[in-house]
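Exam revision sheet. Question 4 asks you to relate a sequence to its structure. Input first:
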Amino acid sequence: MLRLPSFTFLQPRSLDEAVDMLAERGDGAVAVAGGTDLYPKMKRRQLEPTTLVGLRGIDEIHGIFGSRDAGLIIGAGETLTRVLEHPDVRRSHPALALAARSVSTLQLRTMGTIGGNLAVDTRCNYYDESQAWRESIGFCLKKDGDICLVAPSSPRCWAVSSSDLAPVMIALGARLTLRGAETERTIDAQDLYRDDGIDHLAKEHGEIISEIRLPPLDGLVSTYRKLRRRGSFDFPILGVAAAVRIEGGVVAHARIVLGGVASWPVRAKVAEELLAGNRPTIELVDEVAQRAGDPAKPLDNTDLVPLWRKRMSRVFVRRALLELVGLSPEGT
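Answer key, structure tokens:
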């Protein structure tokens, strides 16, 4: 049986107190809310913090406010279940509700938070194992080793982005507020991520995601599709978030974001530009879907065959876009 290592647990009563605790304790301190990813990693000795700063009792990071016309503000401490069941989220941002519902299982969604999923660690077949298993193969670059076992000749880690919500937030144009001990800043959701399997978040140590702001809907429609071996529990090996706005029968705005195929969520910008400004047809959607699969670079670091996963990125983009523009999915 894998057991948690010893650690100190602190329970702040405010966000200011929490960020001060993180600053005072230094690199050995980590914030925790639901802990659905952190605690298993601590048991496997992938992460070894000496202090945990609990966030669940902080009122400032809870609540869902606003409307589809004014935009939504979601506290980063809200559970995934609360988010997916909220009527304004379901009505105005179905992609977010779909992505939240696709995360893990009911029990873990009731514990896990929206902020936690946005900041969830990257994953890899050679990393997400017990300490004994990892030691038996000589460890990997992400933890305790000196080479990436997925690409041994590469100087970097290729662990894959495993957040379901990240592609959706980027597609919706969300902005995230980060609080530190002496700073507060708001960034675009896409600016939170780096193309690096180890240093995958553009977030300073001690900063906490406090809230997520979704802009006014303004006619935007969205969806999310996820590929995994089983219908529940599994992390994405492909996630497709798409959002479009149609004005006068023409696509005025398009965002297509792929998750699970690289170390960060990947925008299919060439495909977006091809779609925007045109009247949607089956032929156009087929061409856009083909181009959308180009930036997908799946490797042998998650489940199923990489080349098939790349092919499925095009299939899933096609299905998502046909749904959003209201065309019959012939041939799917």
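Marking note for examiners. The first strand starts at residue 8 and ends at 10.
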